[in-house]
Specification:
By secondary structure, this protein is of the alpha+beta class. 34% of the residues lie in helices and 24% in strands. The strands form four sheets. A nine-stranded antiparallel sheet has the order 1-2-3-7-8-11-14-15-16. Helix 11 packs antiparallel against helix 12. It is globular, with a radius of gyration of 21 Å. Bound molecules: adenosine monophosphate and magnesium ion. Magnesium ion (MG) is lined by residues 198-199, 268, 312, 315-316.
Length: 356
């Protein structure tokens, strides 16, 4: 089951938060990169799903129904799409030994969408990436690496996988071994395993937006660990201003701002999950060609589009493709824009990505 951290802040005219507003505003004005939206009535809750901190913020005078509905949906999707939750659709496919497996219509849709982006990118995006995700296990390695550890020591201790281990993992990475007929998923390589980590959060954000709109919420922000989905406009009718984080900066260290009304802004960045040895960053976005973390001079790719599913798939895809091929790909797709940031913090925008 998921872990759930309940941090609810209901701001209304009677709360201590409201009484402290003048002080908070004064403090916020001293920090120019922090958005100041203190006068709105809002409810915000944070949880932990799909290995990610998520925050839902609903604006206006809402009761707890819509917020609870969001967290019920997050629970439902975690139990459907997580690779590590026993009995989820993805878990069932991965433990089928190559036998056809029945999944929900939503899982089937997501797998088909993922396969579309695999074909579009000639395998840069590949949901059979699991053996490499497990081998690199970036999240746990980050807590294991010790100060001053050399590459040789990290190889000897298994912190950095050996070439042989990578070769072995690569044998089972091939999206063409996944077939999806209706709601039946089959892996023609019984040792292959799928991982929807590069696309699931986007899909869930889209579903949450649809749910909130159907529940009559006109103004909300959904943040699934860097996947931001805006719902409607700000309560005063103006557009949302979404800050793009400066790579390796704090979450309030903003490099540029994007205005949105209902669109999604999704970033894939090395700094989200990584460990460092001998000055080299080993991060979680893996290149199915080399078996190593994608190493092409990029530190982040941000995608702006209506659909968060598309944003999520394309942010991971473009990160692996690299700057030139990524820019070309996005320019070829209508309604999608991108911002690429390189290691020297240079920003490269597609033609329709907003300038500051
Ligand atoms: P994102 O943060 O959306 O870029 O997704 C990164 C996550 O997607 C990783 O933590 C893996 O679970 C998965 N992943 C890593 N590399 C790839 C890849 N080349 N294709 C598809 N999924 C990937
Ligand atoms: Mg992604």
């Amino acid at each position: 089951m998921f872990q759930y951290i309940y941090l609810s802040v209901k701001e209304n005219a009677h709360s201590p938060v409201r009484r402290l507003l003048p002080l908070m505003l004064a403090a916020a004005l001293l920090l120019p990169s922090l958005p100041v939206c203190a006068e709105e009535e809002k409810t915000s809750e944070t949880g932990f799903f799909l290995d990610t901190v998520i925050t839902i913020t609903l604006y206006g005078d809402t009761d707890s129904t819509a917020m609870n509905g969001c967290f019920d949906l997050l629970d439902e999707y975690e139990n459907m799409l997580s690779r590590t939750v026993e009995g989820s659709d993805v878990w069932n496919v991965n433990h089928s030994g190559g036998e056809p497996t029945e999944v929900s219509e939503e899982t089937a849709y997501l797998i088909e969408t993922a396969l579309y982006y695999s074909e579009l990118s000639d395998g840069a995006f590949d949901i059979t990436i699991t053996p490499l995700v497990e081998l690199w296990d970036v999240q746990s390695k980050a807590s294991q690496v010790s100060e001053g550890e050399t590459t040789e020591e990290a190889l000897a201790s298994g912190l950095i996988p050996s070439d042989e281990e990578i070769e072995e993992a690569l044998l089972h990475i091939d999206y063409t071994t996944v077939s999806c007929e209706g709601t039946t998923v089959t892996l023609s390589d019984p040792d292959a395993e799928i991982d929807l980590g590069g696309i699931a959060k986007g899909y869930i954000a889209d579903c949450l937006e649809e749910y909130l709109l159907s529940a009559g919420i006109e103004s909300a922000l959904i943040n699934l660990g860097g996947n931001v989905q805006t719902v409607g406009t700000k309560p005063d009718g103006s557009s949302w201003k979404i800050g793009i984080q400066k790579p390796f900066g704090g979450s309030s260290d903003i490099i540029t701002v994007v205005e949105c009304t209902g669109e999604s802004v999704v970033t894939s960045g090395t700094y989200e999950r990584y460990f460092e040895v001998d000055g080299i960053i080993y991060h979680h976005i893996l290149d199915p060609n080399t078996g190593y973390p994608a190493d092409n001079g990029l530190v982040s790719v941000t995608i702006l589009a209506d659909s968060s599913t598309i944003c999520d798939a394309l942010s991971t895809t473009c990160f692996v493709l690299g700057l030139e091929d990524g820019l070309d790909l996005i320019e070829s797709i209508d309604g999608v824009e991108a911002l690429f940031i390189t290691e020297d913090e240079t920003m490269y925008r597609t033609s329709g990505f907003p300038e500051d």
